[in-house]
């Protein structure tokens, strides 16, 4: 238990420090005048494998979800924002974010994204994702926004496989780089975008171990759920974070980003490490207590050996905290023997 607590404190410190270095110095972006359209427009971007042309620079952007909002902050684009939507379960993450100051400066519109609040904010673009605010059941889609004269940009990690509801069309970290570059081009800060991508890649490369695939410890990402767990397949940022850190996601064969699985499959996998997604109404302590107290799950290798590490939600979905998450998890995994070892 002592190792777990030390890792938790070290995790927060490293994530905070690295994120400040990688994304905290972009606030000097000049605002473009709404009266004149810059010569570089129209701008055409490829988003979710479709080309879309923006005729004018967005000046009142609304975002949904903490990590999506942090992408804007990392690029220094808070002055282009009309507000953000953030659930109550993510407010704690914003309070401890490296961009806490920006979260306090930009308007928190509501817990759940909706058309009424988007209209009230006089938004000219919405940056969200499928199941990160966009969804047919909520009747809130890029198509509907276009019908009201509002542009959109879809988080690349959430792009859906053509003809399905499954998400994930590219490696998750490549999705992050794609969005950083696309938004850099759209908002006229391509140099800042390239600098971020270069720093992110360098951080990840330095963290990556040289161990062979079969020598890597297996990792189960525990997001939430007691009757059945919610975890990450190969389309989610968490899967590639685990891989780049030197681990093997036990659900890497699932072609989706975030999915529900069964405890029976977790028991069969018997992971070496359990990575806990720290967010929502259930605390990290609640989740570890549940695992320790469950008759079957308490016999998992990771539970018996107290091999728990937690990272914040914003570090495990696509966003600027991903590189720091790779580094922190890699340091934790260095001392973990594999089930083959």
TrEMBL record:
Keyword annotations from UniProtKB, A to Z: Signal
Supply the SUPFAM superfamilies for this chain: Helical backbone' metal receptor
- Signal peptide feature range: 1-27
Which residue ranges does the record assign to the Fe/B12 periplasmic-binding domain? 60-340
> Which PROSITE patterns does the record cross-reference, listed alphabetically?
FE_B12_PBP (PS50983), PROKAR_LIPOPROTEIN (PS51257)
State the family named in the UniProt similarity comment for this chain.
Answer: Belongs to the bacterial solute-binding protein 8 family.
Tell me what this protein is called.
Iron complex transport system substrate-binding protein
Supply the source organism for this entry.
Actinopolyspora righensis
């Amino acid at each position: 238990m002592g190792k777990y607590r030390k890792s938790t404190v070290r995790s927060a410190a490293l994530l905070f420090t690295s994120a400040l270095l990688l994304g905290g110095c972009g606030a000097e972006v000049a605002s473009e005048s709404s009266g004149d359209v810059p010569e570089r427009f129209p701008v055409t971007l490829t988003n979710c494998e479709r080309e879309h042309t923006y005729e004018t620079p967005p000046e009142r952007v609304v975002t949904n979800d903490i990590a999506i909002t942090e992408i804007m902050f990392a690029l220094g684009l808070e002055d282009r924002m009309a507000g953000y939507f953030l659930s109550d379960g993510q407010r704690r993450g914003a309070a401890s974010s490296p961009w806490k100051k920006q979260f306090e400066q930009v308007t928190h519109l509501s817990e759940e994204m909706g058309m009424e609040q988007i209209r009230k904010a006089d938004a000219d673009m919405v940056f969200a994702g499928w199941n990160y605010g966009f969804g047919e059941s909520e009747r809130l889609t890029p198509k509907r926004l276009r019908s009201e004269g509002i542009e959109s940009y879809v988080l690349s990690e959430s792009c859906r496989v053509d003809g399905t509801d499954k998400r994930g069309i590219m490696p998750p970290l490549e999705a992050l780089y794609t969005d950083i570059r696309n938004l850099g081009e759209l908002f006229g800060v391509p140099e800042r975008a390239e600098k971020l991508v270069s720093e992110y890649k360098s951080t990840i490369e330095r963290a990556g171990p040289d161990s062979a695939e079969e020598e890597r410890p297996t990792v189960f990402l525990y997001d939430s759920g007691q009757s059945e767990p919610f975890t990450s397949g190969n389309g989610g940022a968490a899967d590639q974070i685990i891989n780049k850190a030197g681990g093997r996601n036990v659900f890497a064969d699932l072609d989706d980003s975030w999915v529900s699985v069964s405890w029976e499959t977790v028991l069969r996998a018997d992971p070496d490490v359990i990575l806990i997604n720290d967010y929502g109404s259930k605390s990290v302590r609640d989740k570890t207590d549940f695992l320790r107290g469950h008759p079957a799950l308490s016999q998992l290798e990771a539970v018996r050996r107290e091999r728990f590490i937690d990272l914040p939600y914003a570090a495990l979905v696509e966003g600027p905290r991903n590189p720091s998450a790779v580094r922190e998890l890699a340091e934790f995994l260095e001392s973990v023997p594999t089930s083959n070892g």
